[in-house]
Write a structure and sequence with these properties.
Number of domains: 2
EC number: 5.4.99.5
Strand order of the largest sheet: 1-2-3-4-5-6-7-8
Protein name: chorismate mutase
InterPro entries: Aldolase_TIM, Chorismate_II_sf, Class-I_DAHP_synthase, CM_dom_sf, CM_II_prokaryot, DAHP1/KDSA
Helix content: 40-55%
Enzyme class: isomerase
Structural class: alpha/beta
Keywords: Coiled coil, Transferase
Bound molecules: prephenic acid
Length: about 350
Amino acid sequence: MENNQQMRKWLDDMNLSHPLVIAGPCSAETEDQVLKIAHDLKDTDVNYYRAGIWKPRTRPGNFEGVGALGLKWLQKVKEETGLKTTTEVANATHVKLALEHDIDMLWIGARSTVSPFIMQEIADALEGTDKIVLVKNPVNPDLSLWLGGIERLHTAGITKLGAIHRGFSTYKKTKYRNIPEWQLAIEFQNKFPDMPLICDPSHIAGKRDLVFDISQTALDLNYDGLMVETHHDPNNAWSDAAQQVTPSNLVHMMRDLKIRKETDEASEYNKKISGLRTQIDELDNELLELLGNRMKVSDEIGQLKKQRNVAVLQSNRWNAILGRMILEGETKGLSEEFVLRMFKAIHQESINHQEKIIKA
Ligand SMILES: O=C(O)C(=O)C[C@]1(C(=O)O)C=C[C@@H](O)C=C1
């Protein structure tokens, strides 16, 4: 699969004056609930109404969705409000039922994207459809798996494709439910700049207070749209209660989010930015020069260790460097996370250099 400008045609054809907005409850619970939220969202920026019908839950015994009955409620949403509809599909039966009920857009969840078998089953079931199909990132931060899932759909002849970034599972304690790993989504955009990319701030956040900030970051990174879980009574929702926002929260959020343009044609801006970019280029060259010099010193240490038969890894020394650099970094406005990542990469390169010397 190669990037192609046609990839964003389905989105461009909508001629939206704002990012694409997909909203609605995590789960369809009752017909009244589905219709109430849809009517609340009817005259807002929302383009597609979402509701989970089949809910894959981490542990059995929780509410697992109302099943095919909910598809009829989504049809009613379309009839009564004119909103287009979307739901998650996780196997060939779901696909068949969703297509029979004329659901306009389907999405594939993170727990399905992770399995090439399931992705292939879904792709085969979707073959030839002209519905829009969005693929959430897999639960683990693996870009190839995400792209592979989309590729299977592409190979099955589905042309209206897009990706949803919902964050990644982690065992680390963080403020997020699923860590965003924005770098991975940036890599996705670099490879497929014309593939519509939607952010799901609700699943990244896990709690509603973070939804606005995550949405703003996504828009600052040129995302094409947002999928926001929205419920008229979030605290009593049957699933994902903590992360859903009310329809009126969503309206305020859409009003307050800053939609920034990709670039600015004004010559004042261009003059300033090209001066600053020259500085960045020079600093990047200096960084590489310094890193090259650091590796030369590491090579000398490698020679010494080889002569004296000393191990490459020196944990005490390494921990001392890390501790000092984190403190130094703080005084220069660099986050601990960044300093750690950068020095771990430098250490690995240094070890690789010395290994090469020792094994030669
Ligand atoms: O101090 C050493 O012994 C080194 O080899 C240098 C270095 C480094 O790159 O800073 C590399 C490997 C060791 O684990 C510790 C530190």
